[in-house]
UniProtKB/TrEMBL annotation:
Name of the molecule in the record: Vitamin B12 ABC transporter, B12-binding component BtuF
PANTHER family: MOLYBDATE-BINDING PROTEIN MOLA (PTHR30535:SF34), VITAMIN B12-BINDING PROTEIN (PTHR30535)
Keyword Signal: yes
Matching PROSITE patterns: FE_B12_PBP
InterPro entries xrefs: ABC_Transporter_SBP, ABC_transptr_periplasmic_BD, Vit_B12_bind_prot
Organism in which the protein naturally occurs: Granulicella sibirica
Stored Pfam families: Peripla_BP_2
Domain of life from the UniProt record: Bacteria
SUPFAM superfamilies in the cross-refs: Helical backbone' metal receptor
KW Ion transport (keyword) present: no
One GO-annotated biological process of the protein: cellular response to iron ion
Keyword annotations: Signal
Amino acid sequence: MKTKLLLLLTLLALSLQAHATRTVTDETGRAVQVPDHPHRIISLVPSVTDAVYSIGAGDDVVAVSDYVQYPAEAKKKPSVGSILTPSLETIVSLHPDLLLAMKTQNGEGSVEKFRQLGIPIFLIDPHGIDGIFRSILSLGDALNRRPQADAEVASLRQRLAAVRAGAQGKPVVTVFLPVWYDPVITIGHGAFITEMIAAAGARSVTADIPQEWPHISIEAVIARAPDALLLTRGGKVTLELLKTLPGWQSMPAVTQAKVFYVDKRMDFASPVAFDALEDLAKQFHP
């Protein structure tokens, strides 16, 4: 096994040396030497995969991580394993010329291992809606597709502006989004979902909490008195479940079944989240 991996690494190193390269700066501030035109890309995060396809680089992707959902054609690509612990041997065997990852989702140990092996890895670190735009542009720089990235961001900005305009002047409903129920985990200030909710014409009652993904007591949720819950359609946190749990049973939004639903596209800090945004805005203001 080790001999095979060593041989694969040698072949990979030789192939990387054969390409013209340039230096770009990723979103962690690292200088990364990348091919002029990457053609063997491995994306280690589903949202990154969606962004890569959105700027027309899908044909250059040779593999993805587990849990890829969008776009549909990306699910046909081979997987290198989980987001946190992808298979090193599988990655090396595919002879990638560039790995794409996310600072907050890919394990630092895996990232450091790829660096030590000399495999170029470009990290993005999106926070908020503007962070999504910035990451698409960063990927455009890394993949030498900046014009396509500029066009994609311009289109997303137009869609965002249209949603905001449609919600302007209409009543603002307050919502609580339980990411999990025990312990209670939700969204705070800076989380792109919090900003998406606001753009759609509502307000998360936890938008003032500094952390992006804070833990909060059920008593604090009740005190914030949300008009409604915002649940993920098909998710594990359901209204039926919450009705059976202490504390939740006394929340008016639960007892009166006041619920809005967002689909799983909103889980991805990538272009597909804007599809979910448009659907959510129609629910808040039919």
